[in-house]
Inverse folding.
């Protein structure tokens, strides 16, 4: 296996994710009669591993939509696990080391770090609230 990063553009998975996100944001913008979206805020778990790729795919997927040029603001949620032995939430020493940093017991229960949550959407260029006539 070559250690070089071959990836050039976003993968199909990330594009699909961005498209789904943009559709959601477009619905919201339409509902609120806004022509443009300025910022989309997300919370992404450390384990979801799409943070950087999502910026690229969002850029590609948003072309020609009201989300074009919108800022994607991603807050990364750190990984925490629950240790049954210590009976509390712990932060593992690495993303692939699911062991309690204090007692060394295996901690298979992930508390945070997997979420993908749409936090807020900022809109601009609102249409005047008039009824459309044919
Ligand atoms: Zn522990």
């Amino acid at each position: 296996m070559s250690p070089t990063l071959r990836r050039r553009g976003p993968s199909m998975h990330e594009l699909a994710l961005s498209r789904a996100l943009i559709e959601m944001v477009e619905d919201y913008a339409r509902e609120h009669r806004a022509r443009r979206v300025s910022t989309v805020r997300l919370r992404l778990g450390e384990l979801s591993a799409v943070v950087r790729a999502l910026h690229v795919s969002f850029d590609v997927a948003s072309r020609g939509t009201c989300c074009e040029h919108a800022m994607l603001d991603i807050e990364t949620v750190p990984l925490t696990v629950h240790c049954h032995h210590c009976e509390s939430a712990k932060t593992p020493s690495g993303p692939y080391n699911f062991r309690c940093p204090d007692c060394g017991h295996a901690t298979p229960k992930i508390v945070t770090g997997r979420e993908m949550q749409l936090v807020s959407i900022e809109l601009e260029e609102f249409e005047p609230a008039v009824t459309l006539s044919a």
